[in-house]
Each structure stands twice: as C-alpha cells, then as structure tokens.
Amino acid sequence: MIDTINKLEQLIKQGVAYCAQSSEQEMSRKKSLDKWSKKEILGHLIDSGINNLQRFTEIQFENKPYNIRKYNQNELVKANDYQNSDLTEIVEFWSSINHRIKNLMAQQTDNTLNYKIELEKGNFSDLRFLMNDYVVHLEHHLKQIIQ
C-alpha cells in the first residue's frame, strides 16, 4: 500500500502544479460538445473521490462483502456544473479529498486491506484492489488533463 500512497501523493502534487499554471480558458476548453473539458474531468475526479472516500470508510464497519454501488458519472459532472465553477475552488477540493483518501489509506492494515467487496453480482475482490484501482483511475484521467 505504501507504493499506492506514494503514487497518490505524487499525482496530487502533479495535478495541483499543472492546474496552478493553467488558465481558466485552457481548463474550460472542450474539444467537442460531447467531451468533458479539463475542468469537468477534474470534477469527475472529485466525484470519484467523494464516492470512493465513502466506500473506503464504510467498508470499515459495514457487513462484508461490502457491496459497491455504482454512481452516475455524467449526471454528477453536469449537476455539479464543474464547467462553470471556479478553477481554484475545484482544484482545492480535489486536492483536499485526495489528501483525506491518502490518510485513510495509510491507516489500513493487512487485515482491513483484505476486507471483501462485491464489485458486481458474483464478482468479488478486496479493499486493497479498490484502493489501488482508485489511484490507477485517477492517474488515467490526470493524464487526460495534462496532455
């Protein structure tokens, strides 16, 4: 888990640094009407952070296997109106929630990392997988922002 935590810390720093030197215009530009802008991708990462923080926390005390609920990604980005939100605010929110996630990850033990989850009906894994997958997902979308 130490490698995952270190990777998350690196990604937070990279994302904050990139956004700090980027203009509102650059972050708001859409390549097409059906694609998210960089701000909206960052907003999606906020929504992912919110949902995963809840998952990572609830699994500590809920019955196992913990059932992963899906969330409506496109609808959340639209409802939160990240496109028209202040860039500084969403960068700070994204950074803050990921620092909270990083701290929660650091508290885990071998026992808790082995807590069972059900990703979908009949497909099981564990908290370790879920936390690692979260960082892989974040890295994928951060590359979309930085490119």
Can you characterise this structure?
The chain has 147 residues and is mostly helical. It has one domain: Four Helix Bundle (Hemerythrin (Met), subunit A). A hairpin with a 2-residue loop joins strand 2 and strand 3. It is globular. The mean pLDDT is 96.
Distance between the termini: 28 Å
Please tally the β strands and state the result.
3
CATH superfamily: dinb family like domain
Structure class: mainly alpha
Overall pLDDT: 96
- Shape descriptor reads globular
Number of helices: 7
- Uncertain stretches of 5 or more adjacent residues: none
Named CATH topology = Four Helix Bundle (Hemerythrin (Met), subunit A)
Portion in strands: 5-15%
What portion of residues is helical?
Answer: 55-70%
Query: Would you list the SSEs in sequence order as H and E?
Result: HHHEHHHEEH
Q: What is the CATH level 1 assignment?
A: Mainly Alpha
Number of domains: 1
CATH hierarchy: architecture:
Up-down Bundle
Side by side, the strands of the main sheet go 1-2-3
Cα-based radius of gyration, to the nearest Å: 16 Å
Describe the main β-sheet briefly.
Answer: 3 strands, mixed
Write the layout of secondary structure elements.
Elements: H1 2-20, H2 24-28, H3 38-58, E1 66-67, H4 73-80, H5 87-106, H6 110-113, E2 116-120, E3 123-126, H7 127-146
Parallel strand pairs: 1-2
Antiparallel strand pairs: 2-3
Keywords:
single chain; 147 residues; mainly alpha; Four Helix Bundle (Hemerythrin (Met), subunit A); three-stranded mixed sheet; globular
